[in-house]
Amino acid sequence: MNPTTLGTELGLALQPISRATVPHEDRDWLPVLEGRHVVLRGLRPSDAASLHGLLTTPEVTRFVSTPPATVEAFERFIVKANRQRSGKYICYAVTLKGSDTAIGMFQIRETEPGFQSAEWGFALGSAFWGSGVFKESAQLILHFVFMTLGVHRLEARAAVRNGRGGRALQKMGAVQEGVLRKSFVCNGQYFDQVLYAILKDDWRASREAGQAAVVLH
Q1: Which stretches in the chain have pLDDT values below 50?
Q2: Angle at CA 74, nearest 5°, toward 72 and 79?
Q3: What distance in Å separates the CA atoms of residue 191 and residue 212, rounded to the nearest whole number?
Q4: Whose CB among 74, 85, 146, 198 lies 3.0–4.6 Å from 68's, allowing a Cys bridge?
Q5: How many angstroms separate the Cα of 42 from the Cα of each of 29, 104, 131?
Q6: Got the DSSP string for the chain?
Q7: pLDDT tens across 40-90, in order?
Q8: What global pTM score does this model have?
Q9: At what angle do helices 71-83 and 48-55 cross, to 10 degrees?
């Protein structure tokens, strides 16, 4: 997956990056997660324009919390997210290897002290659905959550009607544990949500069955 070629095919302007240009503060507080085709790094205010363009489309926002409505609002969201990075909330930008354009994001929130339990959420530009970007990014996030943060139980919620999101979680090993009735409001409508969870022991067993290793920097 060459980012320049893929960007041209999708009509996107993907900005090249060298490792030396990654700001020092990103390397300090949050490890970069690098796979074969994607690199996950800390969010930066400069990501606001690309994230606003990719994550505010109707197909993306159909079953997720309403994203910031403007580029400026996205900038404020990113600044606030980075201020919360005290160990209880983490937000990663998804980029293609060789590019510095943010095309999606993952959020991790502590739900029990010491990150014994956590919740994750994600959004990816629809142009990258089905490309393998989500799967590889999610594998990196799971490795970070279980091996670096030491999470025992990782939860996620997806609207019952969000079949794509539910299938994506199940492919990553998430188990459906119940339905939360009318627990999520989107565009003025209440939705039932499915509660999914991945346990560290189950994730570790799946890795031993053949999942690829990751590189942390």
Answers
A1: 1-28, 212-213
A2: 95
A3: 35
A4: 74
A5: 9, 12, 22
A6: --HHHHHHHHT--PPB--GGGS-HHHHHHS--EE-SSEEEEE--GGGHHHHHHHHSSHHHHTTSPPPPSSHHHHHHHHHHHHHTTTTTEEEEEEEETTB----EEEEEEESSGGGSEEEEEEEE-GGGTTTTHHHHHHHHHHHIIIIIS--SEEEEEEETT-HHHHHHHHHTT-EEEEEEEEEEEETTEEEEEEEEEEEHHHHHHHHHTTPPP-EE-
A7: 999 999 999 999 999 999 999 988 888 899 999 999 999 998 887 656 899
A8: 0.81
A9: 110
Q: Are 115 and 151 in contact (CB under 8 A)?
A: yes
Name 16's Cβ contacts closer than 8 Å, sequence gap at least 6.
3, 4, 98, 99, 100
Distance separating alpha carbons of residues 142 and 4, to the nearest angstrom = 27
Residue position matching structure tokens 């197909």: 59
Give strand pairing partners of 157. Answer: 195
